[in-house]
Amino acid sequence: MNHEVHMSKKILIIDDDPDIVSYLKDVFDEAGFTTFVASNGVEGLERAQVHRPDLITLDMDMPGRGGTLFYVKLRQEPSLAEIPVIVISGVGPRPPAINKNVPVLSKPVDPQKTLALAKEMMGA
């Protein structure tokens, strides 16, 4: 196996729906990114601290205000505050806690659009 040694960008996918997770993972993996997965905000924060992703996709419709809480905590942490976030949401208006310049994609997710946006936000 010949692996090119290039730093591939890392994406953290936070969603409690396994179908969405595996779908996004496939989209990003095929594009050559390294992906990590978390099924809730608490796990997401831990993964973010460990892996220092270049981008986070965040589901808002997780139990326990998962998305909003995660976002607020992420931004409070100096080492993580600069990581770009794409919110992926099935329903409703933009949560007030989410910064205006954070893009919100609605489900079902368009793979091309998601990928283009991810690359743009990571400067990849």
Automatic annotation (TrEMBL):
Modified residues (4-aspartylphosphate): D59
Any Pfam family matching the protein: Response_reg
Domain Response regulatory: 10-122
A Gene Ontology BP annotation from the UniProt entry: phosphorelay signal transduction system
Domain of life: Bacteria
Keywords: Phosphoprotein
Gene3D superfamilies attached to this UniProt entry: 3.40.50.2300
Keyword Lipid biosynthesis: no
UniProt-recorded name of the protein: Putative response regulator receiver protein
Record organism: Megalodesulfovibrio gigas (strain ATCC 19364 / DSM 1382 / NCIMB 9332 / VKM B-1759) (Desulfovibrio gigas)
